Amino acid sequence: MPQKSYYGGQAIIEGVMIRGRKNIAIAVRCPDDHIDLHTEPIQGIFAGWMKKIPLLRGVLTLLEMMVIGTRALMRSARLALGEDEEEEGGVDSYSWLMWGTMVLGLVVGVGIFFVGPLFIQEWLDSYIDSSVLLNLIEGAIRLFLFLGYLLLIGTMKDIKRVFAYHGAEHMSIHALEHGDPLEVEHVRKYSTFHPRCGTAFLLIVVLLSILVFVAVGRPALWILIISRIVLIPVIAGLAYEILKFHGAHSDNRLLSFLLAPGLSLQRITTRRPDDAQIEVALTALKGAIAADNAEEEAVVPSSAAPMAQEVAARGPSSTD
Fold first, then answer.
1. Distances from the Cα of 197 to the Cαs of 72, 166, 258, in angstroms?
2. Helix intervals (H) in 22-92
3. Which of 50, 100, 121, 164 would bridge 138 by S-S if both were Cys, CB 3.0 to 4.6 A apart?
4. Is residue 177 part of a domain?
5. How far from the centroid of its chain's Cα atoms is residue 91's Cα?
6. What's the average model confidence in pLDDT over 3-10?
7. Model confidence, pTM
8. 267 or 303: which carries more pLDDT confidence?
9. How many domains does the chain divide into?
10. Buried b / exposed e across 1-19, counting CB within 10 Å, b at 16+?
11. How many Å apart are CA 314 and CA 34, to the nearest integer?
12. Which long-range contacts (CB under 8 A, 24 or more apart) does 37-44 make?
């Protein structure tokens, strides 16, 4: 039976980002074929006490996916193009581009998937009296747009490689959870599907939005637009709690059946990786584990310090 794991991640351009307990690791295959590994601690609100509060931790997870994920994506893009991190002023010189890309992506995503279907629904309003039916139609349009978007980008050559790295990330996490050696030959046997996947999270968000927005009813259009925006954090929080509950009760057949569409959707967002891509994913995973272990070993409880000094002064003790 798989063991509980704190590790997860995402695919990036020619690489994988792994989030550990306290650190992230980014591994990228460079044009000269070597693997660049970068680790850094998780800081700020993504590592604080707020990540333990139900519902709020789901919102922070979504925000983390955007901020840390975008930063990892920008780094991988530079390295995949053969650019040195120190060139052009280093990472800071790209910060404006990173934030601009993230904000633009957020605005476009919310506009297309959450606000856009409202205008189609508004056009149907004169033909359909039932607010429940209108909201269900809106939800169906949102789901269609989401699936269509994934299918469309999945036809692109570069995205297919990203999806292969996505599969490699899942397979590596499976090996870790099953206690197998983190080596390519031991990882090949695992599935590219994983229940704790961002794709599954997004699908739950889309499906939950149907139920939440039905409860809003049919007020004025401007109120509907505001509701679609301000309720996104609530829906994200609920989606995260559902996935977390499933992770703690993975043997629950009913829950697994209800969440099966999230696994099926990974037929679109993952591809079977080659050994070189698995090697990159394992490099990122090992990097995150090593960074976490090094940080934990560096922390010595203050109460243990006097005792350690006393033992050192006495010399080796006998167990006889």
1. 17, 10, 15
2. 56-80
3. 121
4. yes
5. 22
6. 78
7. 0.82
8. 267
9. 1
10. eeeeeebbbbbbbbbbbbb
11. 49
12. 37/283, 37/284, 37/287, 38/75, 38/85, 39/287, 39/288, 39/290, 39/291, 41/291, 41/295, 42/68
Q: Which amino acid is at 234?
A: V
Q: Is 3 helix (H, G, I), strand (E, B) or coil?
A: coil
Q: Is the pLDDT of residue 1 over 90?
A: no
Tokens of 272: 């079977």
Range from 243-252, 262-271, 276-285 carrying the lowest mean pLDDT: 243-252
Structure tokens given for 302 = 């203050």
Which of 118-122, 138-142, 286-290, 311-315 is least confident? 311-315
User: Using an 8 Å Cβ cutoff, are 138 and 117 in contact?
Assistant: yes
pLDDT grade for 122, boundaries at 50, 70 and 90: confident
CB 198 within 8 A of CB 47: no
> Domain for residue 95, yes or no?
yes
Domain that includes residue 234, residue range = 8-295
Please give the helix or strand (H or E) that residue 26 lies within, else none.
Answer: strand 23-29
Please check whether residue 134 lies inside any domain of the structure.
yes
Rounded CA gap, 250 and 253, in Å? 8
Q: Is 259 among the domain residues?
A: yes
Provide the β-strand partners of residue 16.
Answer: 11, 27
83 by Cβ neighbours in 10 Å (0-12 / 13-18 / 19+) ranks as: middle
Amino acid identity, position 54: P
Distance CA 138, CA 115 (A): 10
